[in-house]
Input
Amino acid sequence: MLNLKAPRVRTLAARAALALAGVAASADAATTNGFANGGFETAAADAGQVAAGWLTAPTGNPAQWSDDAHTGSHSALLTVPGGFGASTLFQDSRGNLPALTAANVGDTPLLTFWAKGDVSTTGNANFWLRYMGADGILLDSGAQSFGGSLSLDDWTQMSFRGAAIPVGTTSVMLEINTAVGPLLDGRADAVHVDDIELALTTAAVPEPGSAALLLAGLATVGAIARRRRA
Ligand SMILES: [Ca+2]
Output
């Protein structure tokens, strides 16, 4: 009898282990839900415009695609070539990535990106992180200035821990811009941005199939253990 039971227990234990592995895999898959093409390596339809997935504004002074990159071959270039103006780069994650769910509520995502450039005339380089719901903005980070951290010669990593994601959030919007007034020294202020990432750390809820298999496996192993003790 014991010789017949032993392989069965091993099989059930293996099934439980497989179910656990499935839960771990689904958690890993949910750790990132940031912005598509944050490295700007995918070409846009319009030559010279910033890479696919990102929107730029205004029409007369859009962000450009630059070959001065932190990694890869390209970055985004925000520039204001003289006079008042602004160059803005933004993306709403709902356009490219899976919608956020209740599993993401309470998470404090970490935004990171690399930047290089000069806004010494005004120091005006900012980003906003916004949590979006069905009816618009649920929570806004407010303007986060990073112009004072920029270097003209080296890439600098910026990081920002977002507030807790509120109930009802379905996507995250990021806007980065530089805006300057008249330049005193004739320079065209410009900021390069590359390798934008938004990391969500909330563990995923196990998929129903994995959870059911896990529970069934554990229950059966427990029943066999009780039977063997009896
Ligand atoms: Ca890049």
Observations:
- The helical segments are 2-29, 208-229.
- The chain has a mean pLDDT of 77.
- The first helix runs from residue 2 to 29.
- The first strand starts at residue 55 and ends at 57.
